[in-house]
């Protein structure tokens, strides 16, 4: 039986990414790390628990991708450049096949963004993963949730709703006849990409930003609360993929999926009038489109509108402890 | 029913410690943090899982102390100055009484070391805690595991074995007649203190260091392996408290407890001959004693000796996955 230390050494000590700002990585009491001069450190922590955030029998490579992508997405939402991650892995027994799959998914994404695994902990218990990711951002350039003002325009990157459609297929709540469509939507759920380059491109342009992890309506609420404004969303502006429209031909239902879809990892951001012209140019090199879906107003809350008339849809974001 | 965000806001957003190097703490996608010029960042992650590292019914204030103390102890072992911590808390349901107790223990220790909680995650699932602690260390001054040489002397701070005695009492494996003795040993297990000041004082003096979390024999092995040396320990030099001697009057058994006791959070460090005179002076202001227990030699492994003669005791450190 492999012991704890063997496991860590075998699966986590060897990684292609070797950053110059990591004088000491795994294997000592702490990692030693160097932040570039003039940069602030952006840090975020996310836990994924089997049974709550993923199915225990899920492909471990997908689980790893989801764990790291959701964590990197928080860096993207601040406009930060990813650098390091620590991994706390709790598992019932040292399952080497699971670990091999997990590492494959984890290191593939880490390598893509040049993120080095610098430490962590491996413990016995119910399956769960906690990641703490670190990135850099030039001092004063971070995209927070509190910088938005009434009159700013509301944007989202990419399309919304595909992740929710993929989850419904995964859970067997829905089926589709077209196997290609099924595989695309499942992939959009399992392999959603953090918008790292888009976040960096929006430094100095967006007034506020966050990533959509609990659903647009729920997450946008955090910007509204922190910035002290309300939002008016034109539902017909919401960007839907052709695949979502094929999955859910009833348009209003597709739009409601787009408003509530979690784990999307698209960015929602706000832009002052004078910066609107810069958005498309800034995002051009990131390969990500952005769509204006509404505008901030004085007051509180989110109003959904169509043709200028209020809509009364009931929507809820994802909440782990809600019943 | 409180939702996830309410819980986080209510229990974790308010803390007495407000550091100037934390421009943005809890409540955004990431925390924003500033590392002093000329310093490296030391980072360590520890998970505590109910049923593996603590009893589910344990006092939550003790659990919080243990979680943070074990994490801070890793900073102490590098000679780092603590600064920030992130907390990932997974719990089956939002138990407010448990949270209140946990926060009390957590913030008491955090405040003592001026550590600010800068972020984290609250999720639903089996009870567990993962902390990632951050500290500063002047560039090039970290105490690693790999700097020891043959001929260096082996030291430990404080006394060894009290934590194991307290654990045996807690688990009902042993009893003692004296209630005062019982309460002292339980306290030594529950409230072991990280040797933060001692670690900092040893910068420039110790050649290698680590904290004793899995038992002296097991942990010292990491220094030996990383530094490519062997150790000779004079068991009669091991520092035992009067309480341990009362708990275990049979001397050899008390010494064996001292060699294997985990979660002690004392430091084990090595000192070149020319620095030996500086140890006591350096540690004087930290209020912690240090005891020389042996010397490093060429070769591999640890030899226990008494009066210069080898001993053949069988000892094992703590390993989560061992059977």
TrEMBL record, chains A, B:
<keyword id="KW-0418">Kinase</keyword>
<dbReference type="GO" id="GO:0005524">
    <property type="term" value="F:ATP binding"/>
</dbReference>
<feature type="binding site">
    <location>
        <position position="29"/>
    </location>
    <ligand>
        <name>Mg(2+) 4</name>
    </ligand>
</feature>
<feature type="binding site">
    <location>
        <position position="263"/>
    </location>
    <ligand>
        <name>substrate</name>
    </ligand>
</feature>
<dbReference type="InterPro" id="IPR010918">
    <property type="entry name" value="PurM-like_C_dom"/>
</dbReference>
<feature type="binding site">
    <location>
        <position position="74"/>
    </location>
    <ligand>
        <name>Mg(2+) 4</name>
    </ligand>
</feature>
<keyword id="KW-0784">Thiamine biosynthesis</keyword>
<feature type="binding site">
    <location>
        <position position="318"/>
    </location>
    <ligand>
        <name>substrate</name>
    </ligand>
</feature>
<feature type="binding site">
    <location>
        <position position="74"/>
    </location>
    <ligand>
        <name>Mg(2+) 2</name>
    </ligand>
</feature>
<protein>
    <recommendedName>
        <fullName>Thiamine-monophosphate kinase</fullName>
        <ecNumber>2.7.4.16</ecNumber>
    </recommendedName>
</protein>
<comment type="function">
    <text>Catalyzes the ATP-dependent phosphorylation of thiamine-monophosphate (TMP) to form thiamine-pyrophosphate (TPP), the active form of vitamin B1.</text>
</comment>
<keyword id="KW-0460">Magnesium</keyword>
<dbReference type="Pfam" id="PF02769">
    <property type="entry name" value="AIRS_C"/>
</dbReference>
<feature type="binding site">
    <location>
        <position position="213"/>
    </location>
    <ligand>
        <name>ATP</name>
    </ligand>
</feature>
<feature type="binding site">
    <location>
        <position position="46"/>
    </location>
    <ligand>
        <name>Mg(2+) 2</name>
    </ligand>
</feature>
<keyword id="KW-0479">Metal-binding</keyword>
<keyword id="KW-0808">Transferase</keyword>
<feature type="binding site">
    <location>
        <position position="145"/>
    </location>
    <ligand>
        <name>ATP</name>
    </ligand>
</feature>
<feature type="binding site">
    <location>
        <position position="46"/>
    </location>
    <ligand>
        <name>Mg(2+) 1</name>
    </ligand>
</feature>
<feature type="binding site">
    <location>
        <position position="74"/>
    </location>
    <ligand>
        <name>Mg(2+) 3</name>
    </ligand>
</feature>
<feature type="binding site">
    <location>
        <position position="214"/>
    </location>
    <ligand>
        <name>Mg(2+) 5</name>
    </ligand>
</feature>
<keyword id="KW-0547">Nucleotide-binding</keyword>
<keyword id="KW-0067">ATP-binding</keyword>
<feature type="binding site">
    <location>
        <position position="29"/>
    </location>
    <ligand>
        <name>Mg(2+) 3</name>
    </ligand>
</feature>
<feature type="binding site">
    <location>
        <position position="44"/>
    </location>
    <ligand>
        <name>Mg(2+) 4</name>
    </ligand>
</feature>
<dbReference type="GO" id="GO:0009030">
    <property type="term" value="F:thiamine-phosphate kinase activity"/>
</dbReference>
<feature type="binding site">
    <location>
        <position position="121"/>
    </location>
    <ligand>
        <name>Mg(2+) 1</name>
    </ligand>
</feature>
<feature type="binding site">
    <location>
        <position position="53"/>
    </location>
    <ligand>
        <name>substrate</name>
    </ligand>
</feature>
<dbReference type="GO" id="GO:0009229">
    <property type="term" value="P:thiamine diphosphate biosynthetic process"/>
</dbReference>
<comment type="similarity">
    <text>Belongs to the thiamine-monophosphate kinase family.</text>
</comment>
<dbReference type="InterPro" id="IPR036921">
    <property type="entry name" value="PurM-like_N_sf"/>
</dbReference>
<feature type="binding site">
    <location>
        <position position="211"/>
    </location>
    <ligand>
        <name>Mg(2+) 3</name>
    </ligand>
</feature>
<dbReference type="InterPro" id="IPR016188">
    <property type="entry name" value="PurM-like_N"/>
</dbReference>
<feature type="binding site">
    <location>
        <position position="45"/>
    </location>
    <ligand>
        <name>Mg(2+) 1</name>
    </ligand>
</feature>
<comment type="pathway">
    <text>Cofactor biosynthesis; thiamine diphosphate biosynthesis; thiamine diphosphate from thiamine phosphate: step 1/1.</text>
</comment>
<dbReference type="InterPro" id="IPR006283">
    <property type="entry name" value="ThiL-like"/>
</dbReference>
<feature type="binding site">
    <location>
        <begin position="120"/>
        <end position="121"/>
    </location>
    <ligand>
        <name>ATP</name>
    </ligand>
</feature>
<dbReference type="InterPro" id="IPR036676">
    <property type="entry name" value="PurM-like_C_sf"/>
</dbReference>
<dbReference type="Pfam" id="PF00586">
    <property type="entry name" value="AIRS"/>
</dbReference>
<feature type="domain" description="PurM-like C-terminal">
    <location>
        <begin position="150"/>
        <end position="305"/>
    </location>
</feature>
<dbReference type="GO" id="GO:0009228">
    <property type="term" value="P:thiamine biosynthetic process"/>
</dbReference>
<dbReference type="GO" id="GO:0000287">
    <property type="term" value="F:magnesium ion binding"/>
</dbReference>
